[in-house]
Amino acid sequence: MIAYIALEVRRTLRDTGFVVFGIGLPVVMYLLFSNIGLGGDERRETALSLMVGMAAYGALGAALSVGTQLAEDRSLGWLRQLRLTPLPPTHVVAGRALTGSVIVLPAIVAVLLAGRFVNHVALSGGQWAALVGLLWLGTTPFTLLGLGTGYWLNAQTTSVVNMVSSMGLAIVGGLWVPTDSFPDWLRALSTWTPTHRFAQLGWSVTEGHAPGLVTVLVLLGWLVLFGGYALRSYRVCGRTA
What we know:
Strand content: under 5%
Oligomer: single chain
Number of domains: 1
Shape: globular
Helix content: over 70%
Number of helices: 11
């Protein structure tokens, strides 16, 4: 299991497209959006809030990309080879999910470093550590979502679905634009999205308090839902392979 996870991590981090779009793009977007026409206290507040939002967006894209790579592996026959090993379905799904949990770290850390050293965001050492840890743990539902799609659809369709999912969830979840500017109905909807609650993990740290119980429960609900989706997709894929 450990060897399998290490193999998948190495393969992902060698992918130039992942490094450019999964790690570099969120940093560029953060630095651009946080330095346009703002000054003083407004700029500092935006730099802090948007730092969390863009770190969450980068982590979201990195987590979903695991499903895209998985769909490509299916087309190459890699999954058929895995079924010849002693690894049970739950371990295969869990292994891919853990792979996603590892590769999201560079996306999160890159944006936070830009916030600290370029935009001079000031947080305590404990807050920085909590921010990384909570955002890291919070990506698991999205990794499972990406895996479910990767098992279910072909490589080209998975890539499109994951891209649309990443952008749609980021926008509706308030990762790019604060939900305060949303219409009432969209703001109410946003509070139940996994992306908004995911970012709320980080925003709570920057505000100096622990994540709320509702945030944790909503994320756990999405974790169960997406986990069931991934496992179901893997089993269907096994019957049709």
